[in-house]
Design brief:
Length: 188
């Protein structure tokens, strides 16, 4: 059965490695409906402004999705301002991430693969106003990302692909359980 996933590339870079990773997942897991969305160009959060249409559309897509994947770019040991701003918009007037299964991944030019950004992101996603159901079992960090993809956008290391597959399928099982509990079907 196909799963509907919103995948957010949390970078404003026009050449985002995290977006490239999500696009690889979109192709590699083509049996599922993975919609890649970028934070590039989204307006910065201001509680004095009405919810922008672009953010409203993202919120609606998240609300309709079975699950969310967030690929967090890391700058200065934290997540990007564009991703933080999107999360602020999504926790002000609308709350589509509340109770939503979320898988955190990250790609970085450094060896840590965005691990520090994911720590901050996890705290934000668990905070009041957001209250996402963050997948805790496996973590996927892609370090040295400049050398990870071939010219067609495919991950080149077979071991990395196998680990990504393992993480992804464990997340799908988690998402199914979370959604059953939310739907009152936990005893089924």
């Amino acid at each position: 059965m196909s799963v509907n996933i919103v995948a957010i590339a949390g970078s404003s870079s026009p050449h985002s490695y995290n977006k490239r990773l999500l696009e690889f997942m979109q192709q590699h897991f083509a049996d599922d409906d993975i919609r890649v969305i970028s934070t590039r160009g989204l307006p910065m959060f201001s509680e004095d402004d009405p919810l922008p249409e672009s953010v409203k559309e993202i919120g609606e897509a998240i609300a309709a999705a079975d699950a969310v994947i967030i690929a967090a770019a890391e700058y200065n040991h934290s997540l990007t301002s564009s991703l933080k701003s999107l999360l602020e918009w999504l926790s002000s007037d609308v709350h589509p991430l509340t109770g939503k299964p979320v898988f955190l991944i990250g790609a970085s030019t450094h060896a840590q693969g965005g691990a520090r950004a994911q720590i901050h992101l996890r705290d934000i996603l668990l905070s009041p106003g957001v209250q996402a159901e963050v997948f805790q079992d496996e973590e996927f960090f892609l370090g040295d990302v400049r050398n990870a993809f071939d010219d067609q956008g495919n991950l080149m290391d077979e071991g990395t692909v196998k680990f990504l597959e393992k993480c992804y399928h464990e997340f799908l099982a988690y998402a199914k359980t979370v959604n059953q509990v939310k739907g009152g079907q936990a005893d089924a």
